[in-house]
Amino acid sequence: MQILALIFSVWLGVYGEHEQGTLLTVNDVASYLNGKPIETATGILNVQPLAVPVNVKDRDVFHITTEEYLLALTDLTEELARLAVNSVTLGDYQRPLQISKFVKDLHAGFQILNLKNDILRRKSDAIKYN
User: Residue 52 in contact with residue 63, Cβ under 8 Å?
Assistant: First the structure.
C-alpha cells in the first residue's frame, strides 16, 4: 500500500520535483523509500534512508519486487477511476480526460507483458474496465 500511496501522490503532483501526471518507475519508488528528500507544500521533508533494494534474488532481505510495483499500478487505476468521478462532480472536466489517456497508455503497456494466469494477470485485465 505504501508503494501505491507514493505513486498516486507523485502522479497527483503533490511532490514538487515532478509535474502532475508523472509515473514513478520502480527505481524511483526505491529511491524515495531509500530516503530521498521529498519536497512538500510546506517545505522539504528529509527522510531517513531505509536502503530498499529492487528485485533481490540472491539474499533474503526486504526489497521491492517488480510484481509488487505492477500490482500497485493496477491499484492506481482503481484510485484514478474514483478521482475521475469526483473531479466531474466538482466541475473539473479536464482531469478525467488526462486520467483516461494515462490509463489507456498503462493498459497498452500491460498488454505488451507476457503475464501468466495469476493475480497480476487478472488485475491487469481489469484495467480496461476502470
Answer: yes
Q: What distance in Å separates the CA atoms of residue 33 and residue 120, rounded to the nearest whole number?
A: 23
What angle in degrees, to the nearest 10, is found between the helix axes of 94-112 and 66-89?
A: 160
Q: How confident is the model at residue 92 (pLDDT cuts 50, 70, 90)?
A: very high
DSSP 8-state assignment for residue 62: -
- The answer to whether 17 and 39 have CB atoms below 8 angstroms apart is yes
HSE (CB half, 13 Å, CA atoms) of 95? 17
Q: How confident is the model at residue 48 (pLDDT cuts 50, 70, 90)?
A: very low
Question: What is the C-alpha to C-alpha distance for residues 120 and 89, in angstroms, rounded to an integer?
Answer: 31
Give yes or no for a contact between 32 and 9, defined as CB atoms under 8 angstroms apart: no
Instruction: Give the pLDDT band (50/70/90) at residue 67.
Output: confident
Residue 125's closest CA among 68, 69, 73, 74?
74
Cα distances (angstroms) measured from residue 37 to each of 20, 47, 116: 18, 6, 37
